[in-house]
Design goal:
It is built from 2 helices and no strands. The chain has 161 residues and is mainly alpha-helical. It has one domain. It starts with 8 loop residues before the first helix and ends with a helix.
């Protein structure tokens, strides 16, 4: 193998230096500036994307804060509306209840008056029935009918005891 021959090493080293120098100059003048410009453009794009993402994040946070504020206001408004509705319904129910209680009180008073009248009528009839019955009993027992005022006095006296 010619590469391993020590006499061929000097020309190989010269060609190695020449080839390395040419490749070094090409890399330094052509490839590395292009790679550097691509890296710089990517760094600029990444910086711009990060700034855009940060701006969008701030806008999103502002939108979320505005949404939460609007939601809190809507909840407060809904609570106020519901409370007003409940208060209005309570007032209506109280008014209806008062009207119904007045109506029931009037009906109760009327019913009590009718009951009292019926009771008085029944008591009058009881006195009449008691007087007639007592008169009939006395007539059957002794054969003689007592007078109406005597029977009425006797029934009244018996009822008071």
């Amino acid at each position: 193998m010619p590469q391993l021959n020590p006499l061929d090493w000097a020309p190989q080293l010269i060609w190695l230096v020449i080839t390395f120098s040419i490749l070094y100059v090409l890399m330094k003048r052509v490839a590395l500036p292009r790679i550097g410009s691509v890296i710089a453009m990517r760094a600029q794009r990444i910086t711009k994307d990060l700034e855009s993402a940060d701006k969008l994040r701030r806008e999103t946070q502002e939108a979320i804060a505005a949404y939460e504020q609007a939601l809190a206001e809507a909840k407060a408004s809904a609570h106020t509306i519901a409370q007003d509705g409940r208060n209005r319904l309570k007032e209506e129910v109280a008014a209806e209840r008062a009207a119904l209680e007045r109506e029931l009180a009037a009906k109760t008073a009327d019913a009590e008056a009718r009951i009292q009248a019926a009771k008085m009528s029944a008591l009058k009839e009881v006195n009449t029935v008691a007087a007639e019955t007592a008169s009939e009993i006395v007539r059957r027992l002794i054969g003689l009918a007592p007078s109406a005022p005597e029977v009425a006095t006797a029934v009244a006296a018996a009822r008071k005891e």
